[in-house]
Design brief:
Elements: H1 3-39, H2 44-74
């Protein structure tokens, strides 16, 4: 394989693997929040606040993976 193909393959693997964990994490967070809301609907405010904060942290990890993939494509 030529170097250009290897760069693109490395970028694809970086974003694919880097988005897998946060995707699963966000799904698990949503599931847990819905379970908590079903059991205790009065606690909607704190549950939703904590869920949104945790989702933002998970999403940041995916954004880091995207930045690494972009760097691999354009710089390496």
């Amino acid at each position: 394989m030529d170097p250009e193909s290897m760069k693109l393959l490395a970028a694809a693997i970086a974003i694919g693997a880097g988005a897998l964990g946060p995707g699963l994490g966000i799904g698990m967070l949503g599931y847990g929040a819905m379970q908590a809301l079903g059991r205790n609907p009065e606690a909607r405010g704190p549950i939703m606040t904590n869920m949104i904060l945790a989702i933002a942290f998970c999403e940041a990890i995916a954004i880091y993976a995207l930045i690494v993939a972009i760097i691999l494509v354009f710089v390496a």
